[in-house]
Every structure is written in C-alpha cells, then in structure tokens.
Amino acid sequence: MIFWLAAAAFASSASVRVADPLLPSIAGEFGESIGGASHIVTAYAIAYGLFQLVYGPLGDRMGKTFVVTIITLGASLATFACIFATSLGALTGLRFLAGVFAGGLIPLSLAYIGDTVPLAARQTMLARFVVANTLGLVLGQAAGGFLAEYLSWRAVFGGLAIFFLIAAVGLRRELGPLRDLRPVGTPPPLLESYQKAFGLFRLPMVRAVLSSIFLEGVLLFGALTFVGSHLHARFGLGLDRVGLVLALFGIGGVFYSLAAPLFIRTMGERGLASAGGVLLGVGFLGAAVSGPSPFLVIAPAMGLGWMMLHNTLQTKATQMAPEARGSAMALFSSSFYIGQTTGVALAGLSFDAWGAVPGFVTAAIGLPLLGVLFAVFLGKIAKT
C-alpha cells in the first residue's frame, strides 16, 4: 500500500514543481511575461493548499486510502485536460482543477504513516517516504525542462497525467472493492469533523508548526520557483539545462532521505532545523551573486538543507493531534502550500520589476532565522 501511496505522492510532487522550467515556453506561446505565466503555478498552489482542508476531515471520516484513490484519478483527468488549453487563462483554470484533486494525496498518505508507524521509527519512515516526493521534484523539473525544449510543454502534462493514472490503478487494485476501504464503525458527522479540525488552532504546538511551515513555503518556494527563469533570462541557459540544474536541488533531498537515520541520530531535531535553515540561506546567497556553474554545488546543498528543516517540521506535525491526524496533516500541508502561493505571487511581481535577486536575498536572510527560531522552540517544549 505504501508503495502506491508513494507513487501518488511522486506524481503530486512532480506536478507541484513541473511548471517551473516551463514558464518561459508558456509565456512565449501565449504572449505573456514570465511573471504573468507564473499564474499557473500560483493557481495550482492555491487549490493544492486550500482543498487539503477539505480532504483532511474527509479522510478521517471516510478512510484515508479511499479518498486518496479517488482524488488520484481526478488529478490524472485534470492534468490530461491541460494538454488542450488554448489560452493562458484556460491553462490556469485547468491547473487549478488539477490542484483541487492532487492536494490531498501527500497529507493523507503522511497521516496514514502516522497512524500505522510508531513514533520511534516515524521520522525515519517519513524521510524514506519523502524520497518519492523528492524524486518527483527531481524528475518533474528535469523532465519538464527537457520535454519543453525538444517537444512541447503540453507533452509534460501528458506524461504526468499518465503517471497519475498508473498510481490510481495501482491503488485501486491494491485496496480492493471500494466498500472495503471505509473505516470500521460509525464515522462522526461531517460538520463535526470540520469543527474538530479547525479547533486544532487552539493548541500552541499546532500554531507554532503551522506558522513555521507557512513561512518556509513563502521564503523557499517564492525564490526557488524563479531560479530556472533567472538562469534562462540572465545567462541564456536552454530549458533542458535549466531543468537539470533544478533537479540537483532534489538530489540533495534524496541524499538526506537515504541517510536520514544517521542525520537524525547525530544531529537531533534542533540541529537539523537550525543547520537546514543555514544551508538554505548560504545557498540562496550564492545564487544571488554567482553564475550558473556554482549551482552544481549550491543546488544539492540547498536540497539537503530543505529536507533537514522540512522533515523536522513534518515529524512534529504528525504529533500535533493524534486523534485527528488526517485533519492535522491537512492543515500542515495547506499552510505550506498557501505559503508557497503567497511567496510565488510576491516573487512574480518582484521578478518582472527587478529580477530574481531580491527574492534570493530575502530567502537567504529569512530561512536561517526560521530554522534557528524553530530549534529554540523545540528546546523550550523539550523542557516542559
């Protein structure tokens, strides 16, 4: 089951970042600026973040695996429809629809792991599961740039739709008849599930984790989304090479995922959070002042730093509300992607006016501060 959940998470992660290297191509075809074309990223992230608030309580009520199976198929159909978009507005709307479906895949899968894996082994298991997410970032960006350069951006969405469909079929076959997917017993009324979900904001741990992941989304992806466009516009890199450079970010994340037990054992949660933020800050500072060649070192280091910080936040999120884990993880992921939406929207305006460097500098300052402050918070709750 976890294999097919990971396959769905792979497609979901690829879909989140696959459009980044496509922005110059899409902007050129529809006669828009790159900042204007970035609306397809913003629209997807808005839907992806907001509708997680819907799927979390639904998963707690109807069964997490049941909901994941249905929305994976929906994501496949909506992504396939992107192939036929005839305007930027139509493509933006279809990307929004794809985000509506894909938004619930990762948080419900993480909640399933939280339900079934003991806490002592959970951070390692989450890190391994995130290998699929990170590979989605790697191959999504690399394949997106390559296919856009030599075929068309439409081919990118076609390939992604096929992968969503494969994951949906695998889940359906693994899980058996739909009637067997529902949880045993009488589920609570749906309204009660949503009231319980939003009531989690009363908990200090929930507020701290959600505000931290929101800021991570704003700072990191507001800058990262425009790395490819920066390299293309300023240094003339082809979209295929842009995709490969962006893929190096994911490779750093894969390295962390594979070596997670060692990192967790030697650094602990506080060390991972603070060191991860510092690595990201140094990486974005290097991106602001260097050319494309140093990205061979900068990008993997940034991916490693992100996973150090993000995996720590993710693990604390699974402990926020064990009795409503689907809802808690939905709030976590929603805060993350709403943060991405905010960051990309602001950085898009900044990119059209001043280029990518102001966003890089903002991330270089903000992410180390975030990592250190969250490490301090972890130290405080450890003493209580």
UniProtKB/TrEMBL annotation:
Keywords: Cell membrane, Membrane, Transmembrane, Transmembrane helix. Residues 1-383 form the Major facilitator superfamily (MFS) profile domain. It is found in: Cell membrane. The chain crosses the membrane at residues 34-54, 66-88, 94-113, 125-147, 153-171, 208-231, 243-264, 271-289, 357-378. Its main location: membrane. The keyword Magnesium does not apply. Gene3D superfamilies: MFS general substrate transporter like domains. It is a multi-pass membrane protein. This is MFS transporter. It comes from Flaviflagellibacter deserti.
